[in-house]
Amino acid sequence: MRKNIVAGNWKMNTVLEEGVELANNVNSLLEGKTVNCDVIVCVPFTHLTSVNAVLNPECVALGAENCSEHAKGAYTGEVSASMVKSTGARYVILGHSERRQYFGENNEQLLAKTKIALENGLLPIFCVGEVLEQREDGSYNDVVKAQVEALFSLSAEDFGKIVIAYEPVWAIGTGKTATAEQAQEMHAHIRGVIAEKYGKEVADNTSILYGGSCKPGNAREIFAKPDVDGGLIGGAALKAEDFMGIIEAFN
Ligand code: PGA
């Protein structure tokens, strides 16, 4: 059966020393505690190796926030999936709406990134979600369906390794969260789209996380929905206690 997961997305926050301290704090809060979900922290490239050194892999897994669609070579400034993997990271966020919006990442590129991440043994946390206009004009189900379908040339075995994160763009960093009902409706829709292509077993085994202004105060209600398997947490992942509060929503 699918896993419950709480994953932090630090985005472009913290200098190295602060990031290591935050990771240390998360790690200490988790050590010796029994929690009912897997915990992941996705951190800036520059922090991966140092954060890996302070995490107890039995409590917290490490992830990156992006990787290149190219394997290696003359791509100045890019970071490859194999480089990410070599730091000890197990996960990589792909297709975050900020990457789609500000860096023009498109479906083709995201498929290439997903493939190369999987080839290198990284598990993608693949983000989908509509913008406010699409929520308002009612096209949100189709928009998200198309984003998920961008991965449908993957084999069932490969698709089965992916974690989906539904993040309505209008809820990211805005303090305006989707209601638990809106999240459930979309998560069930996504699971249905996956089931149509890969069958019920793959769909039932896919963890689908909610992201967008998730906090200790609203996580429990959202995570209680049957198709919501956890959260991808931005702002609240920058404070160890808040992140812990969200993790404990599963207790
Ligand atoms: P937020 O970000 O929790 O700050 O809204 C979520 C995300 O972008 O992953």
Describe this structure in words.
- It is a single chain.
- The chain is α/β, with parallel strands linked by helices and 251 residues long.
- 43% of the residues lie in helices and 14% in strands.
- The chain has an eight-stranded parallel beta barrel with strand order 1-2-3-4-5-6-7-8, surrounded by six helices.
- Helix 1 links the parallel strand 1 and strand 2 (38-42).
- 44% of the residues are buried.
- The structure holds 2-phosphoglycolic acid (PGA).
- 2-phosphoglycolic acid binds at residues 9, 167, 172-173, 211-214, 232-236.
- 2-phosphoglycolic acid binds next to strand 8.
Characteristics of this structure?
14% strand; 8 strands; 12 helices; binds 2-phosphoglycolic acid; alpha/beta; globular; 8-stranded parallel β-barrel; single chain; 251 residues
